[in-house]
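Dissemination and training. As part of the outreach component of the grant, students in the summer workshop were shown how a complex can be specified as a set of sequence lines and then modelled as a single object. The example used during the hands-on session is reproduced here so that future cohorts can follow it. Participants entered these lines:
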Amino acid sequence: MTKPLVAIRSVSKSFGEFQALKSVSLDVRPGEVMCLIGASGSGKTTLLRCINQLAVIDSGGIWLDGELLGVREQGGRLHRLSEREIGRQRLKTGMVFQRFNLFPHKTALENITEGPLQVQRRKPDEVRAEALELLRRVGLAAKANSYPAQLSGGQQQRVAIARALAMKPMLMLFDEPTSALDPELVGEVLAVMKELAKSGMTMMVVTHELGFAREVADRVVYMDQGAIVEQGRATDVLGAPREERTKAFLSAVI
Amino acid sequence: MKPAPALAEGFPDLSGMRIAREPHWFRWFSAALIVLVLAVIARAFANGQIEWSYVSRFITAKVILEGIVNTMVMAVLAMALGIVLGIVVAIMRLSPNPVLKTVAAGYTWLFRGTPLILQLLLWFNLALVFPTIGIPGLWSARAVDVMTPFLAALLGLGINQGAYTSEVMRAGMLSVDIGQYEAAQAIGMGRLRALRRIILPQAMRVVIPPLGNEFIGMVKATSLASVIQYPEVLHNAENIYYANSRVIELLIVAGLWYLLVVSILTPLQMLLERRFARGTLRVAR
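and obtained this result:
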C-alpha cells in the first residue's frame, strides 16, 4: 500500500465544553479525492482546519507528507513549532473557504500573486505569468484586474481556488466551497474542482453536494458528532449505507 | 396562449400625470428667521468695540505667519508620532503576549488619564527631575538644553495622541473580518506580515474619518503648547496683545487662521479616503 499523504491519528479537539473531534484517525492517499459529509457540527470542517493548523489540536497527531504538523518530538515530549515553521508547513496545503475570503483591497491577479511574491519571494515575472495561466484555467482570464467586489460569488470562489493553487500545494482543502453561492453559480465552481481532481490533485472536500461526491470522490467519509461513522467508495456510502446514522442523514438531505 | 384575465374597473391609469411641487412654507419661514438672527449678530459685532483694522493689519503679520507655520509643523510631526505609536500599541494590544498587552493597556491608561496640559508641563520641566540626561559613558547633556519648547511640545502632544490613536487603530483592525486573517495564514503569512499586507490596508479605510477628527483636534491642541513657550500662532498672538492691548482683535486673527487650516484639511481627507477605498466600489474605475 502506498504511503499516505495525510495521516491523522487519534486527533481530538474541543471548543470549551463542546468536543468537536473525538479521537479521529484517517489516511488520505496521494491523488485521492475525499469528500467529507455530515450534518453541521459533525466536525468535518474542524478536521480540515486542523490539517491547515487554523485550529490547534488538543491531542493526537497529524502527519503531512511524512512530517508531523505543529509540534516536534524531543526527549519524550512535544514542543510547539514556531510561527515561522508552522507557516512553512501551511505552504504544503491550499485552503478554499466557504466565504471565499479574497482580499478586497487587491485585484484578482494581486490576490493570486500575493503569496508567491510575499511569502515565497519568487520572481515577479514568473509569478505573474503563472497567475495569469491559473486565471485562464479557472476561466477568468478577462477578470485579472477586477476587484472581488466586482465579481460574482462563483467568480470569487474560482479566484480563491486559483490563489490557493498558486502556492503549489500538495493537498487542497475545500471547506464547503459552494455553500455560500446562489444555486446557479454552484456548477461553475464544481466544474473547476472536477478539472482539478482529474489533474491528479489530492483533495479533501467538505461538501453538501452529494452529486459532486458521487461523481468525483474516490472515497466518501460520513462524520457525526466528532467521529467518523462510515467511509468507503461513493457508490457504497451514498448508494448502500450500512450504518443507521448514515441512512438517516442521507434520507434527510436528499 | 391564454389571454390575460380582465382587470377590474375603477382604477384609472396615472402614468401620464406629474407630481406637483410642494410649497415648503416652513422652510422659507425658518430660513428668513435665521438670516434675521445672523444680521442682528453681525450688526452687534460691527458696532461693538472691535477695531477691525487691527484684524486686517495683523492677519498677515510676519509673527503671526511664523506662528501658523509652527502650528502646522508641530501638528504634522506630533500626529505622525501619534500614528506610529498608535499602530505599534494597537498591535501590542491585540497580540497574544500578555506582557505586551499589559504594557499597551498601561500606556493608554496613563496618557489618556491625565490632562494634556499637565503632560506638556511635565515634559518641559523634566530638568527638575533629571538635571542631566544621556547614555552613561557615551553622551550626556543638561536637560534644560535638550528639552526645548519644541521637543517638549512634540513629545507631550505626540505621546498623548498615540494613546488615543491606538484605540482608533485597534477599532479599525477589529473591523476586518476574521476570515481575512485566516486567508492570510492559509497562504503562509506570519502574524506581522498579515497585519502589514492584509489587515492594516483594510483597517485604514475605516480609520481615516476618525483620524481626520483626531488631526483637526491636534491642530487646535497645539495651542496648549503656548504655556511652555512654543511659538505657535496663539502664543505669538498673545505676545502681540501683551504689547498693544488689542486682545480681541488678535484672538480673532488666530481664530481665523485655525478656521482656514481646518477648512483646507477636509478636502485633503477626502482624497485620502478615496485612495484607501480601493476595491470597495462595485463598478470598475
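The mean pLDDT of chain A is 94. Students were then asked to discuss how this feature might be tested experimentally.
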